[in-house]
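$ run holo --ligand "S-adenosylmethionine" --emit tokens
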Amino acid sequence: MRQGGFVAADDEARELVECSNGDAVLLAALVDRRMNGEPLAWITGFSMFCGTRVKVSRGVYVPRWQSEPLARSAASRLTVQGVAIDLCTGSGAIAKVLTATRPQSRVVATDIDEHAVACAAANGVEVYLGDLFSPLPQELKGRVDVVVGVVPYVPTRSMALLPHDTFVFETVLSYDGGDDGTDVLRRVIGESPRYLRSGGALLLELGGDEAEILQDELQRNGFNDVTVVFDEEDDVRGIEATYGR
Ligand SMILES: C[S@@+](CC[C@H](N)C(=O)[O-])C[C@H]1O[C@@H](n2cnc3c(N)ncnc32)[C@H](O)[C@@H]1O
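-- output --
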């Protein structure tokens, strides 16, 4: 594993050994898969996210540690018996963190990919198959504390800059945000006011100049208190905004 240039080679090797359950032939096959660039989570079947073990099936987006602050912040905005929506849920990692933090709340999620929906359901998430808000129960309209999403936001022109392995193993559906990266983000900003209660929050992961590009869109749709979230390297990682009031 060290020869493969993996950052945490020893940890990864330990996980693969555990997963092989003492079967040397299986272990060799697992190491082979990893050396070919397959995500570790697909091989072991799980990933840790905010300290929670999340099942991740083959083909489903692996939750990133960079999204953990967004998940934690969304959880802090969810009231004890409130309602949250996790759009584009993938494995359901964010929804799972929300439920773990507020066990009495109702957390619903959607994804357009049936494999992701099956995976999120296996993680115990109330998940619906379909485009953004469209498959959600109508009764949630106007009642939601938090809409959170790690939606596709990579500008189409930048897709080629993603690591080579990305599209050997993952689908463009998880990444492609259209021309300037904001196609799906704009739709979420436009559609979430139908679901949010006044004072509810919208939290979205994004990058580059997208927060700036979306300022007018947010205002036009009734959002205020817009905060741009930066990471430790001072790169833009997301926005948080309050609806109405
Ligand atoms: C970047 S992944 C994020 C997954 C998850 N939220 C996480 O952080 O681990 C984006 C997800 O959005 C889903 N997706 C893409 N377009 C969608 C749409 N229009 N409606 C619902 N889900 C969509 C993809 O299938 C993928 O699972």
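-- notes --
Residues 9-20 form the longest helix (12 residues).
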